[in-house]
């Protein structure tokens, strides 16, 4: 569960071609990181996978099933954004369970899933707090918890650590790596931070101006960058 296939994905906004033909296969359970400079199309590609944006052309399959026109809620995906977007008036527990409640999941089942996610993310003691009573790192963990309770086979992360200070960034990064091992889900993760990419990824996808420059394991890119752009971006001192 959770494999992803992109075929000739293109996206234009008016006259501007933002994604110019992306092909990519992500295997079940893989941790794939998209890196590339600001404006190269990372978020747009992620939003297309999630169904929040429609591709201009090309095909998307999840678990071998074409989802080109499948609405976001039916894709078996959960997305974690850079901004946590928690409901300020709801407790941590309610924030984590809300989407399930809206999907009509039974109350007992919601409680079980929220408790499990809270344990995974060490949020048990914070369940009755409101977002204003949490640190930035705790809020981001709640946002991740909100994704976990939906039990997706595919997680999408868009720069989830970029609003955290340096110390919290490292802690939360380790948390995400641990989650990947424990859940065995597929993760597609966007960052412009080389260290995050090198430490988290099974496979790095280097994007530049709407095209893939190179795909490979972190050390592969580090040792054999396909071109100067990749070398510069992965930080190999050639
Ligand atoms: P990244 O996440 O890599 O920084 P984005 O995917 O956000 O890049 O943006 C890629 C390009 O597409 C940018 O030039 C951005 O201005 C443009 N873009 C993104 N979303 C829209 C939109 N809804 N309408 C018009 N242009 C957009
Ligand atoms: Mg972005």
Task: Provide a descriptive summary of the structure in words.
Helix content is 36%, strand content 25%. The chain contains 8 helices and 10 strands. It has helices at residues 42-50, 92-102, 107-120, 136-148, 166-183, 194-200, 218-223, 228-234, and strands spanning 4-13, 16-26, 31-35, 57-62, 65-66, 77-80, 154-158, 186-190, 203-208, 211-216. A hairpin with a 2-residue loop joins strand 1 (4-13) and strand 2. The longest helix is centred in the last third of the chain and has 18 residues, at 166-183. The site of adenosine-5'-diphosphate has 10 residues, from helix 1. Adenosine-5'-diphosphate (ADP) is lined by residues 13, 18, 36, 38-44. Residues 4-234 form the ABC transporter domain.
Class by alpha and beta content? alpha/beta
Name the beta content range: 25-35%
- Residue-averaged pLDDT: 93
Number of helices: 8
- So what's the overall shape? globular
List the helices and strands and how they pair.
Elements (H helix, E strand, L loop, with lengths): L3 E10 L2 E11 L4 E5 L6 H9 L6 E6 L2 E2 L10 E4 L11 H11 L4 H14 L15 H13 L5 E5 L7 H18 L2 E5 L3 H7 L2 E6 L2 E6 L1 H6 L4 H7 L4
Parallel strand pairs: 3-8, 3-9, 6-7, 7-8
Antiparallel strand pairs: 1-2, 1-4, 4-5, 9-10
Helix pairs in contact: 2-3, 2-4, 3-4
The structure holds adenosine-5'-diphosphate and magnesium ion.
Keyword list:
four-stranded antiparallel β-sheet, binds adenosine-5'-diphosphate, 25% strand, 238 residues, binds magnesium ion, ATP-binding, transport, nucleotide-binding, Sugar ABC transporter ATP-binding protein, ATP binding
